[in-house]
Structures are given as structure tokens and as C-alpha cells.
Amino acid sequence: xxxxxxxxxxxxxxxxxxxxxxxxxxxxxxxxxxxxxxxxxxxxxxxxxxxxxxxxxxxxxxxxxxxxxxxxxxxxxxxxxxxxxxxxxxxxxxxxxxxxxxxxxxxxxxxxxxxxxxxxxxxxxxxxxxxxxxxxxxxxxxxxxxxxxxxxxxxxxxxxxxxxxxxxxxxxxxxxxxxxxxxxxxxxxxxxxxxxxxxxxxxxxxxxxxxxxxxxxxxxxxxxxxxxxxxxxxxxxxxxxxxxxxxxxxxxxxxxxxxxxxxxxxxxxxxxxxxxxxxxxxxxxxxxx
Length: 289
Fold this sequence. Notes:
The chain is mainly alpha-helical. Helices cover about 70% and strands about 0% of the residues. The protein is built from nine helices and no strands. The chain is globular. The chain starts with a helix and ends in a 5-residue tail after the last helix.
């Protein structure tokens, strides 16, 4: 028969284990908060303002969007409805990969893992490398997530009708501020996410730019093929994604995070051998007191 003396050590052990776990969670959360504070620090470098060419490009894109609304949207949606059913079914499967969660959830996990790794007793060099990787992951998260969040909000304020919400397609059907999915067509959230991802990933790994833009264009095309967006919605989403991701890159560069301030190139990444050594040191390191 167990006595109170038998259960006392188990109670102490349980309390000690919970204290250790709570300390680990608190330190991890503190590291995540430090990542956020670093992002919000005052600029350390001056970034040259956007040139006339970039501003003209944005204005030209807006003009094209209006032209699409007048001349292109209705004929293209009518064409999409005549496409073979199997092609529309394939596009419907592919388009799901334009959701922001495909990027944000893994990046969020990476940030948590890096924050947890920084609680270990590692060398100063290893901690600097973890901070470097966290800055890169944080840039990707913000550069993709912020434009996507903006598109999610603004599309419901604009209130443009999706194709064939009523008995016929009306590219000029609007119900602003209604906050209903069928009136949340412009800009396309999938197009925003895809374009922002293409810019963000390409900014860090230039060799992946072509692949990412092929991905983005395919996602944009599927939104029209399955008739959930007009072409102008997709183009507007691409504009939001590109401009948003570029603005985030400039924000990071001004704070000497991830990018050089003069030409906005990404800092050189660590070598494979250094990353391998970091992983080994993490698995071998004891927890910080």
C-alpha cells in the first residue's frame, strides 16, 4: 500500500518537470519576441526612394487593370466556361497551392524551432547563425503574410462580385463593405500570395526566381480557369503581392537585416558545412540554465 512518503518524491518530480518545461516555453517565447523587436527597431541605413521607373510601372499596371475590366474580363470568363471539364478539375486541384498557409505554417514552425534552439547552451557563433536564419525566415513570413493579409481585408472592403454571382457575369458588380465571400473578388488573394512568394523567395535565392514565377503564373491562371476571379482581379493581386514584398524587403534592408542597403542584395548565406556543424551542435548541446 502506497504511503504519503512514497508519493511525495513523485509530486516533487512532477513539479520540477513542469517548471523546466515552463522555463523552456518562456525562453522560446522570449526569443520570438526578440525577433519581433529586432524587426521593429529604428532604421540604421538610408534606402534610396523608388525611382520614377518603378512608380511609372505601378501606375501603368493600374491602367492595365482598368483596361482589363473594360475589355478583357467578360470575354475571358466566357472563354473559361467553355474549357473542358477535366482541365477545370485539374486547375481546381492546382489552385489550392496558392493558399498562404502553404508558406506561412512551415515558416512559423521554422521560427519556433529556431527560437527554441536559441535557448540551448551554444557558442556565440552558433547563436549568431541562428539569429541570421531567423531573420531570413522572418522576412519570408512577413513578405508573404503581410500582403496576403492586406489583400484579405481590402478585397472585402472593395466588395467586387466574383464571376456569375448573379444570373450573368458582371465585371462592374460591387457591394463595398459587405464582407461576403462572393463579393471578395478584387484583388485575388491567391495571386497576391503567389506573387509575394515569388518576390520574397527570389530575393534571397535568385536562382529560384524563374521557378517561383512559373509557380505564380500557374496559380494566377487557375483562378481564371475555374472562374472564381476575373483577369483584372488576378493582375491586381499580383500588383499587391509584388509591391508588398518589395516594401518589406526595403524595410529589412533599412535595418541591416537580411539585405544590403545599397543594392538590396541578400546577405550571403552560410555554407552547407557550417549548417551541418550547427545542427550537430544543437543536438549535442545541453539546455541553458
